[in-house]
Amino acid sequence: xxxxxxxxxxxxxxxxxxxxxxxxxxxxxxxxxxxxxxxxxxxxxxxxxxxxxxxxxxxxxxxxxxxxxxxxxxxxxxxxxxxxxxxxxxxxxxxxxxxxxxxxxxxxxxxxxxxxxxxxxxxxxxxxxxxxxxxxxxxxxxxxxxxxxxxxxxxxxxxxxxxxxxxxxxxxxxxxxxxxxxxxxxxxxxxxxxxxxxxxxxxxxxxxxxxxxxxxxxxxxxxxxxxxxxxxxxxxxxxxxxxxxxxxxxxxxxxxxx
Length: 258
Prior knowledge:
- Helices cover 43% and strands 14% of the residues.
- The chain is α/β, with parallel strands linked by helices.
- Helix 1 crosses helix 9 and helix 4 packs parallel to helix 6 (162-182).
- It starts with 23 loop residues before the first strand and ends in an 8-residue tail after the last strand.
């Protein structure tokens, strides 16, 4: 799914860049890893894509055609400012992918309250902030697609990740509650739960650690970010218009049965 659109390939009319039917898409934490792969997938389909980032130089992202907006999702005022910029340049957000997240792994006896609350505030409460703000435009339009990026850890649990697992598990209840609350407004809420993905975060693991992880995965390999992006793209497509409140695992079978 990565790379340029092949020469001679013509996108469907509703997805051509510049077409008035091209959707306004926001991917939080879209400057690297899974988020960047998701942003690229939507851009390659012709959508207008905005991404949020907390640090770094957005110049490279803007070269790729993204609207890069600096935003810390733990700050409601920054979230509101980001949406105002996106709405001014791309129109109200029609597809929201809540991907931004952090980890502060530590065993429970050594985990500080700040370690716990900061992870929950970013991963769970931060998602609440961006979803609530997106719903203004979605309610007016009487349509919208929201995809939350959870984790297999939120379903299975993981030693040393009580804070992260709690935040990611919370996204499931959050999405399913909103699926019931806003389904009559034609707004869908779904969750993608990736397993271990080949990104910068996992690249720092030792060969022994990577081998230990892969040994637990029935498919015997890490996921590529583009494979997560494919699931997100599907849930935001017309083909998934009757899917809401679902949790889609993209984990190579690691969390099956959960």
